[in-house]
Amino acid sequence: MSGSKNIISKKKQSFRINEELFMYLEDFDRAENLPFRYPDLLRFNYTVPLLDKAGKDTLWETVFYPPGENEELNHRLIRTYAMMKVEGNITLMEHLYVDRIDFCPFGNSKPFRIRIKNQYNDNYDYYYVKLADASRVYGLEFEDLLSPNRINYIVDADTLVEEHIIGIPGDQFVQYNLNIPGINHTRLAKEFIKFNERCFVRLLGDMRSYNFVIDMTADFDDTQFRFRAIDFDQQSYEGRKSIYLPQFFKENNPYVDLCIKYINKETVRQYQLEERSLMARRIKIARFRLASLLEVMQNDTVSLKDKVDQLKTELAEHYKKDSFLKCKNMGEIMRVSLNLLLETSV
User: Fold this and answer.
1) pLDDT over 70 percentage in the chain
2) What rounded mean pLDDT belongs to the chain?
3) CA–CA dist 123, 163 (Å, integer)
């Protein structure tokens, strides 16, 4: 494994959610009528920069609304939180309030981050409101079906609501946690290898260190790690094969260095095969739902023709499989990639 410079499209094209994908989302309880829409959150009248504990700009802005709109909007946001957590039972949420609303003007989805606070004990939680994009929805679904992680989200027309994914951002982990005494670098390297393999098989791109988090769980004799993606905009979009391999981003070099230092080639291969085997098992368990999703994706457009042509050519060369060359879109490339996973995991 080695880190190198990678190039991402400066501005990813957005693709609307078509009727077939909406029908899929309704069939599997991902689509609901929300109490508000994304444009409602854009009616703020001023913002202030949000700083971290060290006083540095986080690139988020805390937004403020006119008094007349604030109370009603906050009520709708609490109702939405209830929909995600307790199937809409608002009576269980009467002690909660909206503590802060943050907006990030950068990125493709221009997200709002809603901070919900418990008035009894000051405990808080977050969720995100974003512009709905087909690529991101496919990414969320593949994450839920093919990874060890479950994802909770709701779609309504142009609005996407996602739960907060808990973990330490990968770039912050390098800065503050990587060299803490007692951190098991071998386990960390192992999990990065498995994460790298998952991203490549399910074609999730742009997993630079600030687009994933590390979930740390105390075990009886050590700490377990899990790398979790938090940005799904680059699901099956870019044409370069290396975009789907986190090892090739310079931002991830500290993790690559751990793999080089602590894991030999034979063990790397072992971990790759272990992860592919686990993914194949998940495919078999969710085969009917996954088949429905792939059928929808094969009739959808989530990338540009030149990117599709480049990716299928590079994957055909990588796997030595001409079946990729017959693909006409990203949905077909995904199907071939997952079918190949099943064939090699028998």
Assistant:
1) 97
2) 93
3) 16
Q: Is the pLDDT of residue 56 over 80?
A: yes
Judgement on whether residues 183 and 291 belong to the same structural domain of the protein = yes
141 alpha-carbon distance from chain centroid = 10
**Token pair in block for residue 146:** 């093919």
| Residues in contact with 167: Cβ distance below 8 Å, sequence separation at least 6, in sequence order | 212, 213, 214, 215, 216, 226, 228, 230
pTM to 2 decimal places? 0.93
Residue with tokens 């979790």: 228
Cα–Cα distance, 13 to 6 (Å, whole number): 19
The verdict on 175 and 157 lying in the same domain is no
Quote the number of domains for the chain.
Answer: 2
Burial of 346 (0-12, 13-18, 19+ CB in 10 A): exposed
Quick one: CA torsion of 134, 139, 140, 144, rounded to 10 degrees? 140
Could you tell me how many residues make up the chain?
346
Cα–Cα distance list, 53 to 11, 58, 197 (Å): 30, 10, 35
Do both 206 and 252 map to the same domain?
Answer: yes
